[in-house]
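Contributing new complexes? Match this layout with nicotinamide-adenine-dinucleotide.
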Amino acid sequence: MRMKKLKIGVIGLGGIANFHIEGILASESAEVWSICDCNEEALLAKGEELGVPPERRYVNHLDLLKDSELDAVTIGTPNSNHFTIAYDAIKHRKPFALEKPIALDAKEAIILRQALADDPLPHMVCFTYRYKSAVRYAKQLLEQGTLGKINHVYSQYLQSWGINEDIPLVWRFRKELSGSGALGDLGSHILDLKRFLIGETVKVIADAGTIVKERALLGSEGRGDVDVDDFCHVLARFASGASSSMSISRFAFGRGNYQQIEIYGTQGALVYNLEEEDSLHIKLGEEQQFRKVDIPDSYKANQMQSFFDLLIGKGDGMDATIEDGCINQWTLDAIVQSFTEEKWIAIEQEAAN
Ligand SMILES: NC(=O)c1ccc[n+]([C@@H]2O[C@H](COP(=O)([O-])OP(=O)(O)OC[C@H]3O[C@@H](n4cnc5c(N)ncnc54)[C@H](O)[C@@H]3O)[C@@H](O)[C@H]2O)c1
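Output block (do not edit by hand):
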């Protein structure tokens, strides 16, 4: 008997929606049922491309959420809309996959967490790199204690697109629409990976800056201020005592989507790297050199299929929840406070947990 496909509504039809839609189309368990974008041109183009009937194309997410046939939604709008749309999804009892960072600040994130605590609902935060097989294999090695006690974690997430000064003042450069800059965009992923692999961060000290300070306004004459970070460098302590660093930039010449996390323990070390593909190198005990690990296929995972599995009660427990998103947001806020006030900031565990 053929399984009934989950009817998914895609909210926000920009860059990341293509990834969400690709995942839906590749899955046997889901279909693109409806779409929503406040930009009518984007809505029309995607509707035509996907053959979504005009009556299931919406400019307002509330109209999409009212559909009783809809099973779940993906939320891939700019950060400033995450809170409202996720909150409305909870109120309309529609399970959701929400993009990162989950909100503009911890205040919003905590309200979302409370709303889900009051009315639980299947949901996922799209910390995409949790689904890399190199990350999952590294997690297993760490949980088995293969590296011994962890002393240091050095991490980077580097892109270069900000160097192009012709890129106008898109939402990613505006605090009121994004919350923070490279930090929330790229750093949120690395903070989640470090927590996924190692554990809680208890204090941070950061430096950040804006390299291109103004850009052409979108849709009107003149230029406007970039009021978010183009780069952010963070020193941090884990609850375990391990010391870590995180370098985040949109101005790293030659880097497209480069991540590296190096973890050094008392008995071994590992290096997770992502450029075109994810890879893992390890060195254990008396080994002379780092060696590339052949990762078994069983560690492969797919974010969107994981969302559909979660919806039918078959999640593997590795997906990020709103709780994870909330702690992530709390840490982002602490980092912003640190580089603004130029001092160490303790992560308030009570508020974060
Ligand atoms: N998980 C990842 O690896 C990853 C990668 C890229 C982006 N993202 C996240 O995805 C989100 C979107 O990023 P993007 O690059 O796709 O942005 P984008 O600017 O390309 O697309 C955003 C789309 O949302 C639409 N939109 C804005 N407000 C809306 C509203 N109220 N209702 C419906 N549609 C609305 C815009 O018209 C636009 O089409 C961000 O939160 C970003 O952080 C995540």
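Reviewers usually confirm one structural detail per submission. For this one: The pocket of nicotinamide-adenine-dinucleotide is lined by residues 11-17, 36-39, 42, 61, 76-79, 81, 99-100, 126, 128, 185 (CB under 6 Å).
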